[in-house]
Design brief:
Blueprint (H helix, E strand, L loop, with lengths): L13 H52 L15 E2 L1 H4 L7 H7 L6 H8 L3 H7 L23 E2 L2 E2 L19 E2 L1 E6 L31 E5 L7 E2 L2 E2 L20 E3 L27 E6 L4 E5 L32 H6 L11
Parallel strand pairs: 5-9
Antiparallel strand pairs: 1-8, 2-3, 4-7, 5-6, 6-10, 10-11
Helix pairs in contact: 4-5
Length: 345
């Protein structure tokens, strides 16, 4: 008998196969979070770069016009207005889009009205711009809202279509970046941020220092995102719990609402008017000096008793904050001229 004939090939037993499969499963389970973290890190880096570019564009605008772009360009008492995002289109190499929409020639209301019969204008106003999109967010091309649970209570998004303009139900494309209007609701003209309704603030207005003042921050889909083209109803009603309206939060935000606020049913804060992100633990802001910093959602917060406005006729209203010295670090960063010391954050 040959030696070859007496040799038998031995395979894996069922137990050995199961052990190997189990080990592979454990390795995959350990690897997936690392891969997800790496992907989120890359997305967050892209988001940081977007905010830097928008900050640089605002700086370039301010160098030319001596003021930062206004949060809402009021054309003689109209409700829907071009926002800071539309005004800086030439500074982010979107001159053709700027000219097509007629930002320097017509009001936003005229553009919205004409878009109904002009497909080129219609498509321009709904074109998605990567410069205004955070890759970590899940918002659609047009503004959308994702319902979330908070303290085991299911939230309610604002009415559909989300972030529509008062002129009609027309939507312009989504922006995950909104200007910091200050502490008060975004519709208010007498606000204390850098870019608010009818603002005309230059570098000199940031008396607290450019490195201590928010310029632009993020907003996620669970807070109904935002829009880059303009803002709605800066002369109308602000936040209404019963109507579920968001109004002037289209392109501006307030530090009167906590960062990453997820209570969509809140009657204490405006869930559609603040800043938020899907980055774990906080959100990113571009400051007045052009730097971008990650602000933890646990930052010291105290709005000194200010509540969101729910009535009408508040566009030019005077506002008070209770005792200014009680303002939290988050509020102090959002106000350009409070004169208060910024603590650790």
């Amino acid at each position: 008998m040959s030696i070859a004939h007496g040799t038998r090939r031995r395979g894996f037993t069922l137990v050995e196969l199961l052990v190997v499969i189990a080990i592979i499963g454990v390795l995959i389970a350990l690897l997936l979070p690392a891969v997800q973290q790496a992907r989120e890190a890359a997305r967050r880096m892209t988001c940081t770069n977007n905010l830097k570019q928008l900050g640089l564009a605002c700086h370039t605008y301010a160098d030319v016009f001596k003021v930062f772009p206004t949060g809402g360009l009021d054309f003689g008492g109209t409700s829907d207005t071009w926002g800071w995002g539309a005004l800086i289109l030439p500074q982010i190499e979107q001159n053709n889009l700027y000219d097509t929409m007629g930002v320097s020639k017509n009001s936003l209301i005229v553009a919205i009205t004409n878009a109904g019969s002009n497909s080129v204008l219609y498509n321009a106003m709904q074109s998605e711009l990567d410069a205004f999109r955070c890759p970590s967010d899940t918002s659609a091309v047009l503004p959308s809202c994702r319902v979330v649970k908070y303290n085991n209570t299911t939230g309610v998004c604002p009415g559909s279509p989300v972030r529509a303009f008062a002129t009609s139900t027309f939507q312009t494309s989504t922006s995950n970046y909104v200007a910091c209007a200050g502490l008060f609701d975004a519709q208010m003209q007498k606000n204390n941020g850098i870019m608010h309704a009818s603002s005309k603030n230059g570098f000199q207005a940031m008396t607290d220092g450019t490195s201590n003042t928010f310029l632009v921050g993020e907003r996620a889909e669970y807070n109904a995102g935002g829009t880059w083209a303009g803002t709605s109803s800066i002369r109308g009603t602000s936040y209404s719990v019963s109507a579920g309206t968001a109004d002037s939060g289209n392109s501006m935000g307030t530090v009167g609402t906590p960062p990453n606020f997820k209570d969509q049913n809140s009657t204490t804060y405006n869930p559609w008017g603040g800043f938020s992100s899907t980055h774990p633990g906080g959100t990113q802001f571009c400051f007045g000096d052009g730097s971008v910093k990650f602000i933890a959602e646990t930052i010291n917060f105290n709005n000194a008793g200010y509540a969101p406005v729910t009535g009408s006729g508040t566009y030019s209203a005077s506002t008070t904050t209770g005792t200014a010295a009680n303002l939290g670090t988050y509020q102090r960063l959002g106000i350009r001229n409070d004169g208060l010391t910024i603590g650790e954050y």
